[in-house]
Write a sequence for this structure.
C-alpha cells in the first residue's frame, strides 16, 4: 500500500477530455468574474476598487473556498504536509485582504495575525521538511501545479510590479489617477486568486479519486 501522502502516476493522470472540460469551466468562470466586475462598477461607480467593491469581496471569497478545499484535501490524506503549507500561505493572504476591517479594531492587527500564521507555517515547514520534500516529487508532476504557480506569480509578483505608482505615472503622465493603478493591481490579484482556487479544486478532486480507489481495496 502507498504511503498516505504519496500519489502514484495513475493518480496524476486523468481522462484528457475530463481535464479539458474542467479547464473550459475555469475559463468561463474567469470570463464571468470579469463581466461581474464590469456590472458592479456600472451599478456602484462610487465603490469601484474600494474595500467593499466586487473585486475585494471576490478575492476574499475565492481564498475562503480555497482554504476549505485544502482542509478537506488534507483530511482525505493527499499531501498532508504540503497542503498544510499551502493552507498557511492562503490563510495569511485572506487575513491580509481584511486589513481595512481589522485595522478598525486596532491599528496593525492584521500584521500581528499574519505574523502568527507565518511563524506557525515556517515551524511546520521545518518540522515536516523531509515529508514535504518527498511530497514535492509528485506535486511538481501534478497537472494543477502550473495553475497554482501561475496564480502565485500573478498575485504576489506580477500584480505588485504592475501596480507600482511610478510605472503608471510614467505611462499616463499628467493624466495619472490612483484608481487606474489600483484597478490594474486588484484585477491581477483577482486573476491570481482565481488560478490558485482552480488548483485547489483540482487537488481536492485528485484527493477524492484517490480516497475512493483506496476504499475499494
Amino acid at each position: 500500500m502507498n504511503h498516505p501522502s504519496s500519489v502514484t502516476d495513475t493518480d496524476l493522470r486523468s481522462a484528457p477530455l475530463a481535464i479539458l472540460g474542467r479547464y473550459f469551466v475555469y475559463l468561463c468562470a474567469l470570463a464571468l468574474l470579469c463581466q461581474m466586475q464590469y456590472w458592479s462598477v456600472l451599478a456602484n461607480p462610487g465603490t469601484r476598487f474600494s474595500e467593499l467593491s466586487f473585486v475585494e469581496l471576490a478575492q476574499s471569497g475565492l481564498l475562503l473556498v480555497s482554504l476549505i478545499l485544502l482542509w478537506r484535501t488534507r483530511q482525505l490524506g493527499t499531501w498532508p504536509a504540503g497542503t498544510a503549507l499551502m493552507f498557511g500561505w492562503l490563510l495569511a493572504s485572506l487575513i491580509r485582504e481584511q486589513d481595512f476591517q481589522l485595522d478598525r479594531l486596532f491599528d496593525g492587527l492584521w500584521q500581528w495575525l499574519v505574523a502568527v500564521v507565518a511563524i506557525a507555517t515556517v515551524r511546520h515547514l521545518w518540522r515536516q521538511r523531509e515529508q514535504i520534500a518527498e511530497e514535492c516529487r509528485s506535486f511538481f508532476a501534478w497537472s494543477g501545479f502550473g495553475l497554482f504557480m501561475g496564480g502565485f506569480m500573478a498575485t504576489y509578483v506580477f500584480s505588485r510590479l504592475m501596480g507600482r505608482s511610478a510605472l503608471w505615472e510614467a505611462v499616463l503622465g499628467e493624466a495619472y489617477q490612483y484608481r487606474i493603478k489600483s484597478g490594474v493591481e486588484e484585477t491581477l490579484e483577482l486573476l491570481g486568486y482565481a488560478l490558485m482556487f482552480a488548483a485547489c479544486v483540482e487537488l481536492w478532486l485528485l484527493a477524492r479519486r484517490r480516497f475512493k480507489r483506496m476504499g475499494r481495496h
About this structure: The chain has a mean pLDDT of 87.
